[in-house]
Model the fold of this input.
Amino acid sequence: MRYLPLSDLDRAEMLGVIGAGSIDDLFVDVPAAARKAELFDLPGHAGEMAVERALARLAGMNRPAGAGPFFCGAGAYRHHVPATVDHLIQRSEFLTSYTPYQPEIAQGTLQVLFEFQTQVAALTGLEVANASMYDGSTATAEAVMMAKRVTRRNRAVLSGGLHPHYGAVTQTIAHAEGMQIVRQAAAIDAEAAVIAAIDAQTACVVVQSPNVFGVVTDLAPIAEAAHAAGALMVVVTTEAVSYGLLKSPGEMGADIAVAEGQSIGNALNYGGPYVGLFAAREKHVRQMPGRLCGETVDADGRRGFVLTLSTREQHIRREKATSNICTNSGLCALAFSIHMSLLGEAGLRKLAALNHSRARELAGALAKVAGVEVLTPRFFNEIAVRLPGDAAGLVEALLADGIVAGVPFSRLDPGAGLDDVLLLAATETTTSEDIAALTAALSRRIG
Amino acid sequence: MRFTKDHEWVELAGDVATVGITAYAAEQLGDVVFVEVPEVGKAVKAGDAFAVVESVKAASDVYAPISGEVVAANGELADAPDTVNAQPEGAGWFAKLKITDLAQFEALMDRDAYEAFLGTL
Amino acid sequence: MAMANVGRPTQPDLEISDSAAQGAIAGGRGLLQDELLLFEVGGADRTGVDLEDAALDASDLAGLTRTAPIGLPGLSEPEAVRHYVRLSQKNHAIDLALYPLGSCTMKHNPRLNEKAARMAGFADIHPLQPVSTVQGALQLMDQLAHWLKTLTGMPAVALSPKAGAHGELCGLLAIRAAHEAKGDAARRRVLTPTSAHGTNPATAAFVGYEVTEIAQTADGRVDLADLAAKLGPDVAAIMVTNPNTCGLFERDIIEIARLTHEAGAYFYCDGANFNAIVGRVRPGDLGVDAMHINLHKTFSTPHGGGGPGAGPVVLSQALAPFAPAPWIVHSASGLELKEEDRGFGRMCAFHGQMGMFVRAYAYMLSHGADGLRQAAEDAVLNANYIKARLSDVMTAAFPDGPCMHEALFDDRWLEGTGVTTLDFAKAMIDEGFHPMTMYFPLVVHGAMLIEPTETESRRELDRFCEVIRVLAAAAKGGEAKRFKAAPQMAPLRRLDETLAARKPRLTWRESGATVS
Done:
């Protein structure tokens, strides 16, 4: 077995050193009834070539986004990731290390986390950011529970523009903790509707911009209303590239900003692993979930970094921890940080402009297709359109034309009564030819 | 000054009790990095967790040694938590409580009894 | 013929090497380069990507766009490569040397798995594209589920949890839902041993349960009498790690499960240490109702400096109906993905850590039923070998009987030396090893938890044991000063954690550019 260095001779000699007659002697504490003498009913070991072949066969049954026109978004986006990113994250020292419990021999990871936190704080317009969460959806649930700790209130209002899966995750997790979660019905351009639902028990409102329908909203009036009632505003973003063009959550008054960071540095990966971004105001730092890396000095006075404020965390505070999170998304955060460094301010702005311009081209072309109505008034790189019939059926039909046309809203929220709504995203990877192919096929299918 | 088995101290002036953690507790904790003191106006019962003290690797609840209403909290500790290490039984006090039940105070250990208690640990 | 002494010298000039030892001019040391922060080496005018220009017409977004600078430095590609390669060299890694971090299972990460996860058919597929276009992905998830169910002897698995702690949450939510479905809402307590991972009580509190600790016996196991006394109609579940965090198999595990079920509670098993028994013992045969499996531990997906992990949860028949969305069903047209809310809800936006599923499945196929069993046996053998070779110089916390995949020592052997567990760990750094897990589990004083894993050769184990023996002799030989000063060879010496916590500096700011 290529991954196991011990030879049979090693094993025999080592058992001798231990003073055990056989390997079974080391498993004596297992109740006899539970010892399995025979091998399980699974295939035996296989060589690298055979395994690669088996996996390539499965991979070959899937249709990659890059295989042709592709317009899916709704929380995961296809972007070009520079080759350097994937090379660097496969450095042994990043890939095969763990949580930096011994800071003297983990300064590489720690400095990266410190840089990542600084980048996320800058992008979100807030003062502090943590070292990552699992993904945007769990970050949202954590934000809601943090709002509960900060305000000592028990109710959260989720907008109708929040990604339905994010709403479901927040409902599942925050409800379990005893919170009352009010989910407003799906609505295309109604983030501000949360204002009417704020009451004296409201810990936070959760709004998304661009929202799941792609709509960009000025959130400042919502922040004002929330703050006037003693509540926090949590701002969710699923497309991190939008930070390059749009006002930051912090600028609009967010107390907590969370985001899905997949767009920067990370592949689609069929939904994971991704990286949750989490930023907040400095005055609330002790209520934040997750790991935090901070600057300090070593015994010789040289600058260095350590995990800090750990007393918030499960390994010390146990049942009083701010969250139960332990392992987070370290390597995905590294990928995010490297890609962001390669982009820099100029590159990110250019990338965002490019995405917006592609989406405008897409929206313009779709508006010209008879029977298609563009529903999103202000967008970044994603729009919702109304089709003359069932969106899911049309997406399925367009597969025959080699086109993956987008995400039917009914896939996310089957009960919303928006079966004719299709969500489409355009990124820098979307070409004019892709758009032309889509509109031509749509015209044929609808006509 | 009186003491509890949870290593809090109480000093009484009139009906106002000043509360903090003992020198022994401060030493056991190591470098104190953060203290959360109670809000003024809060009513606490003896035995309630009413403050938190943290070192780098530990967080401990501080229990009210005596019932009363919080009339002052030591805001200085927010910026200078190390005061708890430097002067635990002085400038490092946590809160002042207005008390009503003097018997609760009388029931606590005096210094000799506390020292003897420490000897058993 | 006379030879002229010219050309390249082949001997070191002693005078020069003496002065070089005084310290390098720009902070570098041989192959180890000093590296400033991104914000100090980068610039707003630099970029490592060439993007086409887009005519930005944001008139439709009037008043919604950024005006002020973000404050993000950029790097050209060569600068970026240098920055991150230099940083990487300040990390210890499995690929460099033994990384015996107990409970974390730092085993070799096969590179085939990395290659497979990057195949376009896995990496470049979107979680919401039509299921007819991702049949291979669903097949892989279905196969992974089959292996996990077979290896654990459990009938169902929820794949979506993103890490161990997320899996614990999933398991407890299923347990809570099961109690609620029976109209049994009075169960408010979760029992967990004092030796439990911190995530156990944190998760229980997260779900709104009170935590009660179960005592431990002198031989490091759950105290059955104490458990029986604390079980009652208000207990929702017990959370027990098996093998436990002391590296021991819970001998009475079947009785623990029986008592738990008799009291109407469920048995949540923390599966962090499943790697010790995979292929030999099925948790389903022990009476477990729910258990998460850390794919990044048992099935070797890389730890990545702190994640991502993956924490699928296997469920018993009683809990299977309460599994969260999504799940896969077989139909005439192939595999379908059911995404509607069911059970207690949803754990994350999509379907879990597909990238980790691919790696774990590649690991399973490579090992097969025989290799997985051999891996568990070798992991246990290696740990017992270390325990046997070090027990005369250190004090094993539980000397009697074998350990499982990790060997636990306490600090009694350091008594009177002036050297603490922390000091000893730091001295290991100077010898090129990553320290073991320190001060965990909490039930053992000055705990040192050593998990070598099965992917260490005997040569590396012997090298490790020799180093520890020499260090132990030095500690006992009155060399406390050396230990207090360690590490001396690492990129940095001990860091001031008090300063970091008292005056948190969590982001780079211009004024804080240099601390010296």
Remarks:
- Chain C touches chain B at residues 497-498, 501-502 (CB under 8 Å).
- The domain at 369-491 of chain C is CATH 3.90.1150.10 (Aspartate Aminotransferase, domain 1).
- Chain C has 15 helices and 13 strands.
- The first helix of chain C runs from residue 14 to 20.
